[in-house]
Amino acid sequence: MSFENKVLISRKALKELSLVPEAERELLKDRISKLAFFPLARLDVQKLKGYTNVYRLRVGEYRVIFEYDKKERLVKVLKVGKRENVY
């Protein structure tokens, strides 16, 4: 039995990710790939209040906002950006 989730990245998130400086972008891509093992992976993740199944992943000064569908084993990255701009 596989515990791996499918990770999808929205077009908006891909565009936002492309605007991040290269060093931080590579770190973000690494952490996003580890979302395939959410919630088992040891990542700095918190559920967002006021939303159903929406979480934030903290990577330094950047945040990755994603939705998790446990039944479908699907992680969808919605937004990527600095804390002050992403919420």
Automatic annotation (TrEMBL):
<keyword id="KW-1277">Toxin-antitoxin system</keyword>
<dbReference type="InterPro" id="IPR035093">
    <property type="entry name" value="RelE/ParE_toxin_dom_sf"/>
</dbReference>
<dbReference type="InterPro" id="IPR007712">
    <property type="entry name" value="RelE/ParE_toxin"/>
</dbReference>
<protein>
    <submittedName>
        <fullName>Plasmid stabilization protein</fullName>
    </submittedName>
</protein>
<dbReference type="Pfam" id="PF05016">
    <property type="entry name" value="ParE_toxin"/>
</dbReference>
<dbReference type="InterPro" id="IPR052747">
    <property type="entry name" value="TA_system_RelE_toxin"/>
</dbReference>
